[in-house]
Design goal:
The protein is α/β, with parallel strands linked by helices. It has 13 helices and 5 strands.
Length: about 300
């Protein structure tokens, strides 16, 4: 299959970090600009609350799960192509669309390091299919193999078409003007404009946590924009005490979803440095905590380790 739009090591690490959600408090709803296409009759958007019911449904018909993220255009393309295939097959299987950033426990269950990740669930058992982008004509034989395996196990019930969503759904709340300006700037890859908008928001309200998190996100995107993944990793491996080299690889780890690896690397570096080097590492850790968000348990763990390393 083709490569993804993020670095792709083997599937053995953690869920990726939601970058765009720091710029926007909620992902646009399906069918809205910037969101996924509206689900077809044989596709469903699944979260952690509805996931157990989805697994149970796989005891009667095959389910294909696609883990996607708002920042990944490749994952959104895969979702659209799988939706078209589900429509073509008219109920022989169900497509489950899962935002990996909004549902980290599901992403962890699939050992999703990055997105898109596509897997089947047959009789409650996960079956890895592929990771990364792929043309639709390459997806078709993969789906056909899933259907053949399902038939061999008696999973041949038809999927009932989903009812159309009510037209009276509540609209998404609007962003404050400066946050909207920053989000739009990130979408068009104008990081300078995004930084300026967030900085202005913080001048107007120093307690604006979303603006502070967005500013940290913009810094990460700017630092990694032109990074050579292999070169950065080679430099970090060759120079373990080079602060700049270790900071650079930690940035890429966070961007690629290897959050705990990045935090462990920098905490260890914090223990081995002093003076201005130590302060530089401390500041970068705090910035990356902002990117990942305090709601992520890995941040709490790393904060405690950082305090121990400092004091």
């Amino acid at each position: 299959m083709a490569q993804t739009d993020r670095p792709q090591p083997r599937l053995d690490a953690r869920g990726a970090v939601d970058l765009s959600a720091l710029a926007r408090p909620a992902t646009p709803p399906p069918g809205a600009p910037g969101g996924l296409p509206a689900p077809g009759p044989y596709a469903v958007d699944v979260d952690e609350a509805s996931f157990p019911a989805l697994v149970q449904s796989s005891t009667s018909h095959p389910v294909v799960v696609v883990l996607w993220a708002p920042w990944s255009q490749v994952s959104r393309d895969v979702v659209a192509d799988l939706g078209a295939l589900a429509d073509e097959d008219a109920g022989t299987w169900q497509l489950a669309r899962i935002d990996s950033e909004a549902n980290p426990q599901i992403a962890a269950a699939f050992q999703a390091q990055s997105v898109p990740l596509v897997a089947a669930i047959l009789a409650g058992q996960p079956v890895p299919l592929f990771q990364g982008g792929a043309p639709r004509d390459q997806m078709r034989p993969v789906i056909d193999q899933v259907l053949a395996a399902a038939a061999a196990n008696g999973l041949t019930a038809r999927v009932e078409p989903a009812q159309p969503a009510p037209e009276t759904a509540e609209p998404e709340p609007e962003l404050p003007p400066l946050h909207q300006a920053a989000y739009d700037a990130i979408e068009r890859d104008d990081l300078d404009a995004a930084r300026a908008a967030y900085e202005q928001a913080l001048r107007e309200d120093p307690r604006d946590h979303d603006a502070r998190a967005g500013l940290a996100q913009v810094g990460l995107l700017a630092r990694t924009r032109d990074a050579d993944l292999q070169g950065v990793r080679a430099a970090a491996a060759a120079r373990p005490d080079d602060v700049a080299a270790q900071l650079a690889v930690a940035d890429l780890d966070v961007l690629g979803g290897k959050v705990a690896d990045a935090f462990d690397r920098l905490v260890d570096l914090l223990r081995r440095t002093a003076g201005t080097d130590k302060e530089q590492v401390r500041v970068r850790l705090i910035e990356l905590f902002e990117v990942v968000g305090d709601q992520d348990p890995r941040v709490g763990t790393a904060r405690r380790a950082m305090a121990s390393a400092l004091y």
